[in-house]
């Protein structure tokens, strides 16, 4: 009877492949392997366990988005990347709450990830603006845009759903809806 040795930390490539393949199991492994380190960082620096969970979750989202974008190059250990992202997020949160007493007490090597976080926050802001603009768009435009760009429906399917005479008419309507959406988006 052979016994499997379980590693507490997944390898960096296991994590990246897991994210690319949509593995929920890999997120659990990430949490078990790296959350204690983030909990210690946050609690040592005026935070709570809930704060640590929030910061850790945000860092996983940053990692997930970078890996899914296809241009992610890991120039350090994944553990260092996650720690650096969490550290930066926690510093921002502390300065926002004006509780920062100076600098964080570090116990890990860190990476400069400020621009990654700022890009992630800017994308989030734009997505929220787009969501708000879509909400103000009205029907049938909202559904046409969602069906085509989010639900990946073909122009023929949209044509049938909305009763257009042909796919070209549906395409023209989608174009008009996009123009209206752009106008709403850039007014906000």
| Gross geometry | elongated
Number of domains: 2
Secondary structure: helix percent: over 70%
Number of helices: 8
N-to-C terminal Cα separation, in Å?
65 Å
Order of helices and strands: HHHHHHHH
CATH architecture of the largest domain: Orthogonal Bundle
The CATH topology of the largest domain is given as Rna Polymerase Sigma Factor, Chain: A
Strand content: under 5%
**Strands, total number:** 0
Kindly provide the radius of gyration, computed on alpha-carbon positions and rounded to a whole number of angstroms.
22 Å
- Largest sheet report: none
* CATH class value of the largest domain: Mainly Alpha
pLDDT < 50 runs, ≥5 residues: 1-6
Give average pLDDT, whole number.
79
Class based on secondary structure composition and strand pairing: mainly alpha
Describe this structure in words.
The chain is mainly α and 188 residues long. The chain is built from eight helices and no strands. Helices cover 71% and strands 0% of the residues. The model is unreliable at 1-6 (pLDDT under 50).
């Amino acid at each position: 009877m052979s016994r499997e040795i379980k590693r507490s930390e997944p390898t960096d490539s296991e994590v990246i492949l897991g994210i690319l393949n949509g593995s929920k199991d890999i997120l659990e492994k990430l949490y078990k392997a790296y959350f204690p380190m983030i909990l210690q960082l946050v609690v040592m620096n005026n935070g709570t366990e809930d704060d640590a969970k929030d910061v850790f979750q945000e860092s996983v989202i940053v990692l997930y988005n970078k890996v899914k974008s296809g241009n992610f190059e890991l120039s350090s250990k994944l553990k260092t990347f996650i720690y650096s992202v969490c550290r930066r997020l926690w510093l921002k949160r502390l300065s926002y709450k004006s509780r920062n007493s100076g600098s964080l007490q570090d116990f890990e090597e860190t990476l400069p990830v400020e621009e990654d976080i700022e890009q992630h926050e800017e994308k989030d802001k734009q997505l929220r603006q787009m969501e708000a603009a879509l909400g103000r768009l009205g029907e049938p435009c909202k559904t046409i845009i969602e069906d085509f760009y989010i639900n990946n429906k073909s122009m023929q399917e949209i044509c049938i759903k909305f009763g257009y005479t042909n796919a070209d008419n549906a395409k023209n309507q989608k174009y008009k809806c996009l123009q209206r959406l752009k106008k709403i988006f850039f007014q906000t």
